[in-house]
Every structure is written in structure tokens, then in C-alpha cells.
Amino acid sequence: MNKSDFLNFLEERGSLYQCTNITGLDQLLIQDNHIVAYIGFDCTAPSLHIGSMIQIMVLRSLQKFGYKPIVLLGGTTTKVGDPTGKDKARIVLPTEEVNRNINGIREALERIIFFGDGISDAVIVNNEEWLDELGYIDFLCNIGTHVSVNNMLTFDSVRTRLEREQNLSFLEFNYMLLQAYDFTELSKRYGCRLQIGGSDQWGNIVNGIDLGRRLGLAELFGLTTPLILNHKGKKMGKTESGAIWINSRPYDYWQYFRNIDDQDVGRFLRLLTDLPIDEIKKLELLQDQEINEAKKILATEATKICHGKEEAEYARSAAVAAFENKDSSLLHDYTLKKEQLIRGIPLIDLLCLTGLESSKNTAKRLIQASGCRINDQIIQNIDYVISTKNFEDKSFIKLSSGKKRHIKVVII
């Protein structure tokens, strides 16, 4: 049992995987009510993947206990690319795309964590502040001498790439150095003492702590969360249609959690909702058909955090109406004008336009696999065209991608 309520809370929820000097961090959390902690995200997409939610929930909890979170967005490190878990180098993104991604991530996070100027309000920092102004040769002379290449070569992210004889560029190799430097800069500028990350970031975090020690800073600490895997060991948030993002449509987000395996319900209630632990323990006891009620609660509570109470309740109502009452009236709308249907719209295009599929290739595969339905009728023709004939009986059709994703296409 720890002395700090925060660490005890994380352990009870299953959010604590590893910690450097947990005794020292425990004491620090007791002694200092204003601990500053950060988590970093590279901006490779316009949203964060659902797998990042556990770290975001830790920041959210940190704030609730009165401590201050920093969200570090890698405006510069995104252009380098973290080699962790990657067999190949990332494609370097143009600055304009990185900036668009930053805006999308910021917008999503502002619905989950409170940002402001208060003592425990979160702040968003972009590592462009210091990395873009850094004289690289001076950086290597002043910082690079403190980082051991021997240690870096032992990290899983490096060793795995080398063992598979996959190229690891010097640019990527420098990523670990830059992330370590980020931690020390946040310590100097914001008094940050704690870095939080997924368990796959352990080596990078330890590297930053070691750099801080060599630079004579106050002791830095690292805390990692478990990777979000289902009971089969597969990454959470992967579906037949691709990844689930935290800014996905509320209905899709709700549906994802409603359809998880029974064995994952209790753990995800602990990790990804704000429900009291006593209530979760009661839900964990439900079995057979009753477990579906726990899944609905999980789906609603998880969606509420990312999209707000109103959207979560609407998603729940729409799903219950569509699946239990066979009523499509509450599904989200996608509007078409009659003029668009004069020549017709290929079904493959409509699946992409509505957001049910991410590309024409995935839409084509969906149809070929009998996963696309119009008004619950399977469509197997990849050349199928939506026209005014589809709307002769009513003003909308129900378009489905698989068993879980639906949208109401309305004609005006």
C-alpha cells in the first residue's frame, strides 16, 4: 500500500504498470501538492488512437487529485519518428499536415481534460519551442555526450529492428535523444518531475531520467501504463474497418465498447471510465445476458468522457433503437440532395463519403465480403449505384458497414 492516494488509485484501477523509484515518487506526491507530470504525443494523425486513452485517463486522474498535467505535442519529433514498435521508418510528414494533426488532437483532448491557467489546470506544450531553435551541433556536444549509445542499443525498439535487419536511420536513432531532452526541458521550464507513457516507452523514459541526473536536475520519475490489449492479447481499438480514434463518431465509439468480449468488460470499466470502484465491482459480477447491460454502461461512460453526456446518451438511444427496437430514426444523418442522385452515386463512394469506410479499397472488400447492407439487405455488387429508386418509399435509407456501424442517408 502506497501513502499517496493517487498511486493507490492507479493500482486499484489497473493503470500502473511500471514506475522508477516508486517509493521516492510516493513520498514526493505526499510532500508536494503541486507535482507537474507530462505525457507526450507525436502528431502523426488528426486524432489519437483509442489505445492512448489509458494514458489520457491517468492525466485526467492526476488533475482530479490536484496535480498539474502537461500534454506535450511533438511538433518537431513527429518529423523524426519514434522507432518504438516500428519495423520500418515512418514517412516524414509535411509541416502543414503536422499542424493540422496538432489542431485535431488539441480539440479532442480539450473535451477530456480541463486546460487553463489554474494551479492544477492542464497546459499544452509543443516541443517546437526548444527543438526548432536548437543548434544541432551544439546540442550533440552538450547533450549527446551524456547519453550512452551502449544503453540505447539494448532498448527493445532498437534491438528488434536490428535483429530483423530492418534499416534504422540515424534520424530515428536521435529520437530517443530528443525525447530525453524534452523531459529535461519540461523540468527546467515547468518544474515537471514525472513522465507518463505506455509500457513500450519505458526505455525512452528511463533515458530521460538518466539525462536529467547527468545534468544535475532534481530527480525525475517515470510511470508507465499497461498497453490496452484485449483478453486475447490483441491491441484494443482494431476492427475490420480499421482503427478506432477518440474523435470517431460517438455512435461508432459507443458501438465499439458495446461489442467487446465479456472477459474485457471489468478491466475496461476500471481503466476507461470514471465510475466508482464499488459500482464497477458489482458490474463485474454480472454474467450471461446480464453482462450486456454492463457493456452498455461501459460504452456510455467511455463515450461520455470523449464526447460529452449528451452525445453519449444519444448514441446509446440510437443503438438500442436500431438493434433492439428495429428503429433507424435515431441514427446520425448523412444528407444527399436529389440532384446528386440524378446520375447516381456508386455505393463504394457513398460508404467513403459517410465515413463508414476509410477508402474505396476497404469499401470494395466490405461489399465483396457481404458486409454492406442497405435497409438490412446485403449488397454484394461492387458496382451497385445509389439512385432515387432507393428512396421511392421513404426519405432515407439505412446504410450499414458490418454489424456495428450504421448511418441514415437522408435525401432532401
Key features?
protein biosynthesis; alpha/beta; five-stranded mixed sheet; RNA binding; 412 residues; Structural Genomics Hypothetical 15.5 Kd Protein In mrcA-pckA Intergenic Region, Chain A; Tyrosyl-Transfer RNA Synthetase; Rossmann fold
Question: Can you tell me about this structure?
Answer:
Residues 345-407 form the Tyrosine--tRNA ligase SYY-like C-terminal domain. ATP binds at residue 238. The chain has 412 residues and is an alpha/beta fold. The protein has three domains: 5-225, Rossmann fold (3-Layer(aba) Sandwich), CATH 3.40.50.620; 248-323, Orthogonal Bundle (Tyrosyl-Transfer RNA Synthetase), CATH 1.10.240.10; 333-411, Roll (Structural Genomics Hypothetical 15.5 Kd Protein In mrcA-pckA Intergenic Region, Chain A), CATH 3.10.290. Helix content is 43%, strand content 15%. The protein is built from 17 helices and 15 strands. It has helices at residues 5-13, 22-31, 53-64, 95-109, 128-131, 136-142, 149-152, 156-163, 170-190, 202-214, 250-258, 265-272, 277-284, 291-307, 309-323, 347-353, 360-368; strands at residues 18-19, 36-42, 68-74, 123-126, 192-198, 221-225, 238-239, 242-243, 333-336, 345-346, 372-374, 377-378, 385-386, 396-401, 405-411. The strands form four sheets. It has a six-stranded mixed beta sheet, with helices on both faces. It has a five-stranded mixed beta sheet with strand order 9-15-14-11-12. The protein starts with a helix and ends with a strand. The mean pLDDT is 85.
